[in-house]
Amino acid sequence: MKGLTKLTAVSLAVAAALPMMANADVLISEYVEGSSNNKAIELYNNGDTAVDLTGYKLVRYKDGDTAALDMVELTDSIAAKSIKVILHPSAAITLPAGTDSMTGNLYFNGGDAVGLLKDGVLVDVIGDIPTPAGWGLDTTFQRNVDALTASTTYDAAQWVELEKDTFSGLGTLEAAEAPEPSTFTCNGATLTNIYDIQGAGDTSPLVASGSFESANEVTVKGIVSARSDSLYKGFFIQDAQGDGSPYTSDGIFVYLNEAAPDTIQPGTEVCVQGKVKEYYGSTQIDIKDEQKFEVGVVGDAPAAVEFYVADGETLAQALERVEGMKVKLDAGSDMKVTRTFSFDYSSYRNNMVLSHKAPLMKPTQVFEPNSAQAVALSEANLVNQLFVESDYKAKDGEVPYFPDFNAETGYIRVGDQLTNLEGVIGYSYSSYRLLATNTITAGDFIRVDDRTNAPTVADMGDIRVASFNVLNFFNDAVGGDANPSNSNRGALTEDEMVLQRTKIVNALVAMNADVVGLMEIANNGFGELSAIQNLVDALNAELTDEQAYRFVEIEDADKYDGKYIGSDAITVGMLYRPARISLNGAAQVIATPEQHATAGAQTRDKNGVVESSPSYSVFQRHSLVQSFTINDEKLTVVVNHLKSKGSGCIEDWAAFNENSEPADLQGKCNAFRVSAAKVLGDSLKDVDGDLLVIGDLNAYGKEDPVAVLTDYDASATDHVIRTASWTTLDGKVYERSGSVIEKGYGLINLNTQMHGADTYSYSYNGELGNLDHALGNASLAAKVVGIDDWHINSVESNLFEYGSKYTGDLVKSENAFSASDHDPVIIALSYPAPVVTPEPVDPVEPEKKSDGGSLGYFALMLLGALGLRRRS
């Protein structure tokens, strides 16, 4: 029989925040989280009378959340001193004959505490709230039979942990046998040095080629440098002396598949015995099954070694040299932030990515797609990444190793150099990861390209034109008009919407542009309750009458359904300052192609099996054209927002890229964007005067849509550019089959002409590039005096954006930084006022004039010199 265990209050802070416990005799007596759908919860009625289960339900606390999610509403009753078992409907579990049971949607996993509620009040719980990541994974827990008392706090001492898929105790109340304590000792064992296990290569020399583990166990002694109770589930040890070689690591990870005992802490000497394994690229000693370890004396934790990348080696090669060791990033490490703290879809947690020497550039920003240079840069980027991790998943709005993270003074920008951060080097999810073991301050970030309060071109030129993607500016939260799809992609509350608008307005005021092209503004018309009117009203409230803006409105005949620019929920828009620039004619809409392919429109051969395509109906946003007059010259501005890279078109299906990144790295629907570029080029080729094409083309600097609009020449390259198939335009067939582009339309990429190819306005997955472009004809290009990607968004953390869903208690700021996810692009242009030549004046003596004498004569001369004399 199991001994009586005294209940301890492990989660007092959580319990204090929960409702008072209801009087109930029903409690959780067993928890099963096994393979596949083998999940079960056993309940026990400890009372002397039957209990009606109406009002009872089982809930889960998912992945560390403190709010419960419903799983199973309980029914019927449970007899006195009896058991009821709740099984997952697909569980392969056989219960003893006569067991009272039911099925229910038990969808908890490792990392989820399970609670029993009565009328919404917590009665009993297994697992801490919040729950450590991975707790309860592949485990059966049975409650001690002498500790059958319901509690809203979890006491691990009340439970016995058993092997995965242990079902023998379900339906009975027998005592489980606790595992025998380890009696392992290192006495007399032959020790293997850690550096001999690591070796000088990518894998351990003790693991034979083609295998994943050593033939024999090794016995290793080292000093604990760090625990990992969540991310890796084990601990890191380091050789006390090391071999002094820079080519072999003195540290290694010991895998337990659970949190290490409390006796194992940094500075503790530990001896372990197990096989060496190469686990998806991570060299480790696996002791999860028998847990052969012996704890020795406690001293100081190993000092961190200064990390560096030697000449001629990649970052990945340098990290392999110190895999498992505790390192320190200093100024000599030259590690720059290439992705600021945000969500990592591989490990499904928030973290940050560093690269050596400089942030990573998108290969197709600087090199032609499919070129040897683009392929080489893509491969180089893959081995130039170090993920900075915390052991437990970070809480919303917090950076665990940077506690002073804030929107005003404690920010992190792409390009910052990181110093004084210490941690152990591990490897998981195909990447090297630094598991931080200390905390840093804002002073540990060396700002290479710090924030500026305004773009450099804000006061340059005679006028300025800007392009600004405003990240789904919707005014639905304050009663805005509906859009064609009746969907809200933006702020969900008035507070979020006002914050977003304030940040955008502050950015626009600082930009000081005379024409602004907008992308991702709600497509809800031009009325008093439209998003564009809402934005203009808020913007003008901060400006003088001379600085005030109006928006460009299209003709009624061009409006979709009499209200909108196209049928998408978002659209493009344009603002201008009437005191600075004048409209020249009516605005126009350039309709862009659609793709409509029925099921079976195309086929593909997959391993000898011919498959037919699904149907596709794909759209993209229309473009907006407005001509202006400035000092007797004509300027035509075109605002665009082409199809996103994350969608899917029939060409992606045909190339087996419907679920992956295309090999040419241009994203999905590239040919569809090329079709739009072709339509734009044809529509604008006869525009007279200066032409400026701006906006979010969803294409990086060297990608096909930009090449088509600029300098592409098929005769000068092997790279073939094609339009999309199955396209229509204005409701008519445009191209049944994609066509080959022979020549670009000759516009000039103003940004790359002035600053080179490595400019950027956007960051995705740790790589920088320009999605937001300014393309001009030759006459316009000759007038450019400055152009600036104002880096207020692409290099900032998206946790500072207006949305509050994943930011917890993080205090937001009204500053312009993180007003969007795209940087605004501002172009300064020279349009000087025409010089008026004074008319010649006859030299008439003053006394002979009859219109005011000498004073009138000199006044007339002054007016002529100033160009203000009235012409006859």
Structure description:
With 872 residues, the chain is α+β, with helices and mostly antiparallel strands. It is 13% helix and 30% strand. It is built from 13 helices and 49 strands. The strands form eleven sheets. The chain has a seven-stranded mixed sheet, covered by helices on one side. Strands 33, 34, 39, 40, 41, 44 and 47 form a seven-stranded mixed sheet that branches. β19, α3 (315-321) and β20 form a beta-alpha-beta unit. The longest helix has 18 residues, at 494-511. Mean pLDDT is 92; it is low at 1-23 and 847-872.
Which properties best describe this structure?
single chain; 872 residues; alpha+beta; seven-stranded mixed β-sheet; disordered N terminus
With helices defined by DSSP (H or I, 4 residues minimum), what is the helix count?
Answer: 13
What value does the Rg take, in angstroms? Answer: 34 Å
The largest sheet has its strands arranged as 19-20-26-27-24-22-21
Helix content: 10-25%
Report on the biggest sheet. Answer: 7 strands, mixed
Poorly predicted runs: 1-23, 847-872
List the helices and strands and how they pair.
Elements: H1 12-17, E1 26-33, E2 39-45, E3 51-52, E4 56-61, E5 69-73, E6 77-78, E7 83-87, E8 101-103, E9 113-118, E10 121-126, E11 139-143, E12 159-162, H2 194-198, E13 213-228, E14 234-238, E15 251-255, E16 268-279, E17 282-286, E18 292-298, E19 305-306, H3 315-321, E20 326-329, E21 335-344, E22 349-356, E23 360-361, H4 363-366, H5 372-382, E24 386-389, E25 417-418, E26 421-428, E27 431-436, E28 445-446, E29 463-473, H6 494-511, E30 515-522, H7 531-540, E31 550-551, E32 570-576, E33 582-583, E34 588-590, E35 594-597, E36 603-606, E37 609-612, E38 616-618, E39 623-630, E40 633-641, H8 650-654, H9 670-684, E41 690-696, H10 704-709, E42 727-729, E43 732-735, E44 748-749, H11 750-755, E45 762-764, E46 767-769, E47 772-776, H12 778-781, E48 784-789, E49 825-829, H13 853-865
Parallel strand pairs: 7-8, 15-17, 19-20, 23-46, 24-27, 29-30, 40-41
Antiparallel strand pairs: 1-2, 1-11, 2-7, 3-6, 4-5, 4-9, 9-10, 11-12, 13-14, 13-16, 14-15, 16-17, 16-18, 20-26, 21-22, 22-24, 25-28, 26-27, 29-49, 30-32, 31-32, 33-39, 34-39, 35-38, 35-42, 36-37, 39-40, 41-47, 42-43, 44-47, 45-46, 48-49
